[in-house]
Amino acid sequence: MSVQPTRERLDVIAGTLVHDRAKLSIADARTLYLFAPGYVREMINGRVFVRHVRSSLDAALGDVRGVSGRDGRGNVVDLDQTRCWLGASGYLMLLDQICTVFDYGGFEGLLTSDMAGLSADEAGAIYGLRNAFVHSYGLVNDAKGLKDATRRRRRHTFNLTVGQSTLVTLGDRTNVLTAKLPDLPPTTIDLGRLGDHVEMIVEQIRASHLTGVSLPWAVTDIDEFVGLSFFSHYDTI
To answer: What would the pLDDT profile of 70-127 be if each residue is shown by its tens digit?
Structure first.
């Protein structure tokens, strides 16, 4: 049975990262990345300050849960708030963050991995929504300039909902490459289930790390990993 690292353990790792990085192991850095924050007490000019050592994963989870009607563990406490587009955008950005740290073969590769379990078409639709939100904060992804097979997966107009039984309901894809965008049958994505799915991916990655299951970490150099994935500050920003 896996056991989450204690606060004391995370604080020790954070202290090593801040003050003696040469002694920081990649295994401990990965543990802190997955379970941050860690806190380091420091004396400056006779006053005690607490440095917050956070990972990009920790920061993303904290922010996205706050605007998506979820508590600190990712559980939904306000179903209607899961409709928030910013929250959904945050979860899609969180997937991007995971793809910089792990090598699952990119965004769609992560979503079609055994850990996420989506089909190629479902993963393409989620990636299409990611592009629609990030590039224009809209509900259309034309996917111009891509090869036909890739464009077929990613070219969508979208409807958004909450409370469906499925994450992705694909529209009719028969004429996906030739139909004008206004005539393209929309794909429906449930934003509540999108958040649930990303939370599930994070929990599976954490559980795998704790039980010693091999994960496809993309960065093995400790300095590169720390520079890419961590930041610290003396306030709560």
So the answer is: 999 999 999 999 999 999 999 999 999 999 999 999 999 999 999 999 999 999 999 9
CA–CA gap between residue 140 and residue 138 (Å, rounded): 6
- pTM metric for this prediction: 0.93
The CB-based long-range contact list for 67-71 (8 Å cut-off, 24+ gap) reads 68/195, 70/195, 70/199
Contact status, residue 156 vs residue 133, Cβ threshold 8 Å: no
| Residue environment code for 50-89, b if the CB has 16+ CB neighbours within 10 A, otherwise e | ebbbbbbbbbbbeebbebbbbeeebebeeeebbbbeebbb
Residues contacting 199, CB < 8 A, separation 6+: 70, 74
Note the pLDDT tens digit of each residue in 177-226: 999 999 999 999 999 999 999 999 999 999 999 999 999 999 999 999 99
